[in-house]
Amino acid sequence: MDEFDPFSAPHRISTANRPLLGLTILVVEDSRFACEAMRLLCLRSGARIRRADCLKSARRHLQVYRPAVLIVDLGLPDGSGTDLIEELARAAPRVPVILATSGDECVEDAAIAAGADGFLAKPITSLAVFQDAVLSRLPPEQCPLGPRVINDEVICPDPIAYQDDMAHVADVLSEQAEGTTLDYVAQFVGGVARSAQDTILAQAADSLAQARKRGGPVAIDTARIAGLVQERLNQKRAI
């Protein structure tokens, strides 16, 4: 199904308060916390959200329909989001708006080089920033007519989603993670922790990432992340 096919769904006109009404946004994101933020942003904007947590799942979605907007996290469990961006930027018909997202702003250039139309740095919490990122890149015929209400609301995801991410990290580390799996853990934990303003955990993730780049021992950094993650899971149980 094509999101822009007028016969695929009832035509709906966006409003000043809900400028993305009727649009489908496919979010490719493995973090439950980040995806919850996206869900709230889409809800406030009027957009429908579909979620894929890995490249394989995203490609299954794209075999069924073409969304109006694709938002891709660059660090995914089965590869880099830049690969999917490059595929879809060259596809015909092309997804109208392709946005990359990451907690590491250093990867923005790589995303743009792969074909992304824009980059959203995590944490993505501003409704106004989110809406502008989409609307400024939509085809003219899909943009809302007339004035638009600029909403400066800040989105606050449910902390339970952060606990879900901690459980995910604990599962990955329980399987004797090494090599590229530790690279994934470092980027995932770093992105989620920064989004949740968990400075201690974010610093631990950065330390692991640096150790991996140097090719040095990582046992202490890995154990520190595992301990911090367990502390956060224990906090949930205590509640």
TrEMBL record:
It comes from the Bacteria. The modification 4-aspartylphosphate is found at D73. Residues 24-137 form the Response regulatory domain. GO terms for biological process: phosphorelay signal transduction system. SUPFAM superfamilies: CheY-like. CDD domains: REC. Keywords: Phosphoprotein. PANTHER family: RESPONSE REGULATORY DOMAIN-CONTAINING PROTEIN, STRESS RESPONSE REGULATOR PROTEIN 1. This is Response regulator receiver domain-containing protein.
